[in-house]
Amino acid sequence: MKKLMKNIILILTLFFLMTNGIIYYLTKLSEDKRIELSLKSHIAKLSTHYDILMHQQKLTADGVYESTMKKAGVIELLSEAYYSKDRGQRDILREQFFQLLKDRYRRLKKKGVLQFHFVFPNSYSFLRFHKPDKFGDDLTGVRTDFDYTNRTKTKISGFAQGRTSHAFRYVYPLFDKQKNHIGAMEISFSSDVLQANFTLISDLHTHFLVDKTIFDVKAWERDDLILKYTQSAEHSNYMMTMTKKHSLQKCIIDNKSILKPILKNIREGIKSGKQFSLYIDKIIDGEKQIIALAFIPVLGSVDKNILAWIVSHESDRFIYTTIKNTFYIRIVLFFILLILFYFIYKTLHQKESLKQQVIIEVEKN
Question: At what angle do helices 2-70 and 74-83 cross, to 10 degrees?
Answer without folding.
Answer: 80
